[in-house]
């Protein structure tokens, strides 16, 4: 029977998903393999009738530069019970699957290792190779290599963010913009920097103090006041969604915002607009201070995940896809594919990235002390300093509360 490989995609989409899948397929097809796309992520392996798509050259060639993921994604994570009762071994044996290629985050990668171990125990050993993906750019790849999709998401977000800024200038408004990034502020910082937003707030900025709603709001208001002192009545402020997820539950509950809660009693943060919340909170404080500015909330997130990849990711994701075949041909398994800046392909293992104590992969954070970041803080952001205190008393009684560096304890 002809040897085959199976490809599944897990988690949320990122620009370049189809490029990876199409490139993997092309490499294996020209080397005599059959390529099967498995819809529904891991859920397809734990049902009697998995939904699949036969990926031939024409299919791969058609999708290779498209956004989204033609192989349908899922966040399904199998339990021990699923492995014991629902695993579809027949899919692997009937199709003579030799390799499982997974595209996703670290959960997708670790589950692939479980699948491979389970199959070995069932006397059908396979190789598994993972392609790491996230638009958050928070996976600590060597040499600061970006995660695929980040550059495209940043480019698309910047195009959208510049439109918001033009609207702000045109209508003399303020926009509160929120960008995706649960653990790190790479996307928010990249977009805000590229658009020259006068205020950017990311979790890494709070490296010397705790994150609170008051501090976030005061940073945003600091920029509004600073611009008013310069006779400028418009602006955009970027807030990473990560600062919201870093808030304590007591902070969230005391914010005055009404949330829905999950079965464990935790606020369902994914269902709400972070930009809308901070816009409402800032508006109330501006009104209380009799500062005549209204903000408008906008989100950057779901509109960038399925955007078409830019040239950088088209090439990068192609190299990742071809790299899967290179590693497989070398006998590698249980690893992630990593491509150096010169195109050299290397295996990367989860254990190389995991914390030796917790077993978790620590997120790669924005280096807030780097010259790259400091230059933006010093030359692009607008905020109250000690030199502005006297003039700022026209708007607030205690300008020190809005001093950028005092808020952050820098």
Give keywords.
2 domains; Rossmann fold; 410 residues; seven-stranded mixed sheet; 11 strands; four-stranded parallel sheet; alpha/beta
Structural features, described:
The chain folds into two domains: 4-148 and 309-348, Rossmann fold, CATH 3.40.50; 153-305 and 365-407, Rossmann fold (3-Layer(aba) Sandwich). The mean pLDDT is 92. It has 17 helices and eleven strands. A seven-stranded mixed beta sheet has the order 3-2-1-4-5-10-11, sandwiched between helices. A four-stranded parallel beta sheet has the order 7-8-6-9, with helices on both faces. The chain is elongated, with a radius of gyration of 24 Å. Strand 7, helix 8 (213-229) and strand 8 (235-240) form a beta-alpha-beta unit. It has 410 residues and is an alpha/beta fold. Helix 6 (150-171) packs across helix 7 (186-195). 44% of the residues are buried.
The gist of it:
This protein has 410 residues and is an alpha/beta fold.
How much beta, percentage-wise?
5-15%
Rg over CA atoms:
24 Å
The overall average pLDDT, rounded, is 92
Strand segment tally: 11
How far is the N terminus from the C terminus?
A: 66 Å
Oligomer: single chain
Residue runs with pLDDT of under 50 for 5 or more positions: none
Fourth CATH level, the homologous superfamily of the largest domain: Phosphofructokinase domain
Query: What is the number of domains?
Result: 2
CATH architecture of the largest domain: 3-Layer(aba) Sandwich
- Overall, the morphology is elongated
Secondary structure: helix percent: 40-55%
Count of separate DSSP helical elements: 17
* CATH T-level fold name of the largest domain: Rossmann fold
């Amino acid at each position: 029977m002809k040897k085959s490989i199976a490809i599944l995609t897990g988690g949320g989409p990122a620009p370049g998903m189809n490029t990876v899948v199409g490139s993997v397929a092309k490499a294996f097809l020209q080397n005599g393999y059959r390529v099967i796309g498995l819809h529904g992520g891991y859920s397809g392996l734990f049902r009697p009738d998995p939904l699949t798509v036969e990926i031939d050259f024409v299919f791969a060639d058609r999708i290779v530069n498209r956004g989204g993921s033609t192989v349908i994604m899922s966040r399904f994570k199998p339990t021990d019970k699923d492995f014991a009762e629902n695993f579809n071994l027949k899919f692997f044996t009937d199709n003579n699957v030799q390799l499982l290629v997974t595209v996703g985050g670290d959960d997708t990668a670790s589950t692939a290792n479980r699948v491979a171990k389970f199959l070995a125990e069932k006397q059908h050993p396979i190789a598994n190779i993972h392609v790491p993906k996230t638009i958050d750019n928070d996976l600590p790849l060597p040499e600061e290599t970006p995660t695929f999709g980040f550059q495209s998401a940043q480019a698309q977000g910047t195009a959208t963010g510049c439109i918001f800024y033009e609207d702000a200038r045109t209508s003399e408004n303020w926009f509160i913009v929120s960008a995706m990034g649960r653990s790190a502020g790479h996307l928010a910082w990249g977009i805000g920097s590229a658009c020259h937003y006068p205020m950017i707030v990311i979790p890494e900025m709070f490296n010397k103090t705790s994150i609170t709603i008051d501090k976030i709001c005061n940073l945003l208001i600091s920029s509004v006041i600073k611009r008013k002192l310069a006779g400028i009545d418009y602006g955009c402020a970027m807030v990473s969604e990560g600062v919201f997820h870093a808030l304590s539950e007591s902070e969230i509950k005391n914010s005055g915002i009404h949330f829905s809660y999950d079965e464990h009693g935790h606020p369902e943060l994914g269902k709400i607009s972070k930009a809308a919340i901070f816009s409402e909170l800032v508006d109330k404080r501006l009104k209380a201070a009799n500062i005549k500015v209204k903000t408008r909330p906008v989100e950057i997130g779901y509109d960038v995940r399925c955007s078409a990849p830019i040239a950088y990711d088209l090439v990068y994701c192609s190299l990742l896809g071809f790299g899967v075949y290179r590693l497989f041909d070398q006998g590698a398994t249980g690893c992630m594919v990593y491509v150096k800046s010169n195109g050299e392909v290397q295996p990367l293992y989860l254990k190389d990235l995991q914390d030796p104590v917790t077993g978790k992969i620590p997120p790669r954070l924005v280096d807030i002390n780097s010259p790259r970041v400091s230059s933006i803080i010093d030359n692009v952001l607008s905020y109250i300093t000690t030199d502005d205190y006297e003039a700022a008393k026209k708007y607030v009684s205690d300008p020190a509360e809005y001093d950028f560096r005092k808020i952050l304890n820098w």
